Amino acid sequence: GVKARKNKAPVAVSVKRLVKKLGDISDDEAQETLEENNYVAALGMSTQDAIGNGSSVSGGAVYSFQTPRRPSRMAELASELAQTPGGNVVPNHSQCPEKTARTPQSTSNFLWAALAWKCKLIPLQRVVLGKYMFLILMCVYSLLLQSKQKEFVSTTPYRLRKRLAAPDTLESESEYSSSCSEEEEQDQPEANTAVSDQKTPAKTKAASTPPHKNTLTKTKKEDKMSNLVEEYFEAHSSSKVLTSDRTLQKLRKRRLNQQTLHNLLKKVPIAYAAEIQELNQQHEALFTKWMLQLRLGFNIVLYGLGSKRDLLEKFRASVLLDVVHLVVNGYFPSITVKSILNSITEEVLDYGGSFRSPLDQLEFIIRKFKEDSSLELYVLIHNLDSQMLRGERSQQILAQLSSLPSIYLIASIDHINAPLMWDQAKLSLFNWLWYETTTFIPYVEETSYENSLLVQQSGSLALSSLTHVLRSLTPNARGIFRLLAQYQLENKDNPSYPGLSFQDFYRQCREAFLVNSELTLRAQLTEFRDHKLIRTKRGADGVECLLIPVDDSTLTDFLEKEDEDV
Amino acid sequence: GCFVFKPSAKRRRVSQKKDRGLGESIGDSEDIELRFVTCQSLWAQVKAKTEQIQEDLNKQLFDNLVNFLKLSHSEFQEKTAERTCRMKSREIPTAALILGVNVTDHDLTFRSLSEVLQNNISPYVALLEAKDCPGIKNLIQKLMGQLMNCYVDVEDEDYVQVSQKRIRCSMNSIITWYESVTKKTESTAPSEKGTSSSRHWQSPPVVVIFKDMESFTTKVLQDFIVISSQHIHELPLVLIFGIATSPMIIHSLLPHSVSSLLCIELFQSLSCKEHLSTVIDQVLLPTDFPFKLGEKVLQVLINVFLYHDFSVQNFIKGFQLCLVEHFYSQPLSVLCCQKEDTKKRVNSLTHEQCENVRRLPSFRSYVESQASEKQVALLTEDNILKGIIQKLLEDLNVYHQNYLPVLRCLHVFTSSLPKYPLGKQIRELHCACLENKVWETKEYESSLQLARMLNKSDLVTMLQQCVEIFVSSSGKEFDKTVEKLKEFLTQFQKLEEEAFQERDVSVSPQKELQKKTDLYHLQKTLLELKDSRRSKKLTKFEMLRFEVVDYIDSLVRNYLIPAHHKTLHEIVYFNRASVLREHLNAAPRTALHTALNNPYSYLKNQALKSEGGSISNKAPDICIVYKLHLECGRLINLVDWLEAFSTVVMSVEGQNADAASSDQVDDTIHARFIRAVSELELLGFIKSSKQKTDHVARLTWGGC
Fold this sequence. Notes:
Number of domains of chain B: 3
Number of strands of chain B: 11
Shape of chain B: extended
Shape of chain A: globular
Structural class of chain A: alpha/beta
Domain Origin recognition complex subunit 3 winged helix C-terminal (chain B): 589-701
GO biological process, one term (chain B): DNA replication initiation
Number of helices of chain A: 26
CATH architecture of the domain at 273-436 in chain A: 3-Layer(aba) Sandwich
Oligomer: heterodimer
Domain Origin recognition complex subunit 3 N-terminal (chain B): 1-335
Radius of gyration of chain B: 36 Å
Strand order of the largest sheet of chain B: 3-4-5-2-6
CATH topology of the domain at 273-436 in chain A: Rossmann fold
Protein name (chain B): Origin recognition complex subunit 3
Largest interface: A-B, 154 and 129 residues
Radius of gyration of chain A: 30 Å
Helix content of chain A: 40-55%
Distance between the termini of chain B: 33 Å
Number of strands of chain A: 10
Keywords (chain B): DNA replication, DNA-binding, Nucleus, Phosphoprotein
């Protein structure tokens, strides 16, 4: 929340006056939301003439404002809704969003809204409960029943389920465990509240007060006090999060590799293609304007959801064909500032020499561009905020490049925290004009390189490099590497495998008659290391451990292939 | 990942031709070019003016600095035994330049500073930035590079420049270099007297400027100071620290042992707020500049300045954007030009442009206020319209000419009132006047009331100031005003004389008061006094004061009409504040969240419409995945997530939940899920986590 608020601040100041006039601000906590609403209204009004883009949407619709969390509100709301005799769903629904808007920071309400939302999704005909059941409870039941049948575990807070659901639905409880091995005592209601609070780390102190405070009554006062303290620390401890234990393996789901994923996705039609098309046409109308502004010394940065690669490509194809331009694919995993600078010096300036440091190179480029005013270069950077380019030094160099009057930069950013890369000095060098270009186009190219969580790495690249390097080595050296690889594969089930210690390795190598002295082994290892075949790590006890930084399947493939060759 | 595209030679030639008329790129109307040229010329005007302002404002500061530098090494001039007596002190003269937090403006300041120094003090000026000097070695290297280069620049021939690589970078080599240089100038100086050496002395000091002192590593700074203090006798070094925060930083960065080696003198640069006021006063307000900013736009720019960066540079950039945007988007901006050109341009308006004029809201309301025959004429005949446009533009110009002096005059009054109901700065007053009829506001009323209580001497000085303003203004209508104000002044003078005479005649009741000591009587007289005061007629002074204030009020009502009440104001006023805010003060995160939470705001499809905080289940995959992840805590189980996702998606596709319950998730849905999750990862909402298998960590909290 903090960062988002930071982002809001700029707009906040500009409408300050308006808010002031809207007046009627009292110190009451409840009134605070009113003020925010006013603020939002003012914001919305002042930006109404914008084209139908996101910045014209008032902030309130997007973020929830931070209001002091009232933990009991959730319980209150739940009981309040539970007491309303069954009727139609509509009032409940209209009530929920309203409540969420008021205290959206409290996760419990969020969960409530999510629940309500789920209720809409799940067909109600499966519900076979009595007609006196409250509708909202029915929804919850249906959800839970269904989840039971389908082994679907929602993240509904435990307390809520306990309160609303019959005890027999609690079997799925066994599927929960905290992420760390510590046991939770879940029989006491106090502990339960603590658990549900844990789901939202970094809450205010007030957040950790037990929701059941009223119901707890004044039994043991000193106990309560100590409880409060304990709960505070429990809620704020970063180690315990309660999630289900299920893994993808249990799902008997093979991991898709990049190729099959790509093929599968190709079959999926893009949703709302017409609308996306329309959206993109709006952006394309801006091309001439961008060109003009680039020429006038501004640089342009594009933001918003969706891949902006196609848009920039189109920009390139329609306006930049007649000029010298450089396209940088920032999402490329091996891109560096050096390669960008190199392509400028080598290909744009036709200079063959080498440079001692990127700074020297930058200086050279700056000098060249200043000397020759006819030189002009358009630079397109896809994903200026990619892993490789987001470093401070890279950004500094890029900023200095972009500040040259004859270099025109147009870039795109995607990460939510991307603007944090730039301080005032860099911002003024970049001289950005921000353009919102939400495209809703899937990030196909951009994520294809990302070592995605769920995608199985084919490792074909690593494999081929491995075999190539090894082929050039002596049989003994190959044997040494084999040894290490085999040992690593034997230990592949051990998640905390630290690697093979050097001494063990030496012993094994000697036994296999591969080396005759420690020195030869060291020399061999140095060679491996130079080719990035192995990595050394210091273990906890200070012992040097050797690892092959390749995933197991690749390694297995490699060994199989080796066996074939032999 | 980098690809360079070069057009073929033939194409390039074509492009150069095209280049000349860059204006073409704006659109296809014929006066585009003219608009572009006007815009450029106006921008050049602004740029020149702001640079001039900056220079003027810095002049004082630079003069002081130059003096300091001159004195700092004066003893180096006399290369005599005197130097030996100074041997004991190893202090390096240092100027600490406090520049304020607007880091972005510093660049310009330093650039002009080094220019000034190079012209007046010494050719040896080095400008160091923290980012270039991670270690002492880099620092010395950089220093040498800059010093030797600038040397080459000055003398440019017959100096064999040894490649930097071969010189060992050390203080010693700098010293030998310095000696050789000064020796050479000594030998050459007699022969080419009156050129460069006349401006500098025989052995000019070496000035090292640390641009951003705070960001230097302490170690580097300390080392450099200690080392150079050892050599101060061979090398007349002067340091200049650029400081953004406060002078205390020197002591927190440098331990006493090091800071004692410095002889520091503080210099304070002009505050950026003053700078801004000058810029607004001299660039935005003057009547001879045809382009004007509307109230909201100006407010946005000022707010960005006050609440974000204090950067005048950025303010000017924003102004440039307004200029460009106005000329780009308003076809009638072609008329927004200097007075002399107006006539020609109005006459050459095309029919289409005339139609554009007719479409302006302000013009329409003007037409409606006319007699019906005239209305017809205005709407059908271009020539008559052109005549009217000419007249209206003239009116607008006159309005501007009158506006400014009255605004200044009002500012004289309001800026001295207690609590400043209308603001202290003229820009606030300007905004208030642009926004609404200022005389209808509460603030104005209260300030008038306060003005009615001003004492005589203040009032007189203010009136005098107003007279000056009106006399110096170009408006023709103000002769009468000046006369009137002068009349007021003479009346005040007369009053004073009268009062002087009356003073000894009248015996004030207060004096009587002193005689009586009886409590009852005292009370009685006090009551009487009160009654008499209440019923008392206003004194002559008070009458006059009321008259003055009323007169000022009438001036305000006459001349400070908000610009948007004027016909054809659209031509010269830029009012699209939202555009400005969008491009200068964007909120990328808001846009992302909006798109994820409420795709309907972008994709106008009824299926996506949803009420309140919920989201339609037909939303794009990434929105659904995002919405689902909002429910989770710090860690998210991928399996659960996947199943939740497939439940939602399948319910949309109309598949019965029974069919889906077969435990296996469809491959396509799996693939879609993978894509959406990796997109969320790219956007920075989640990252992979090793804490538990098949879990990802959530990187945002709560709803945002």
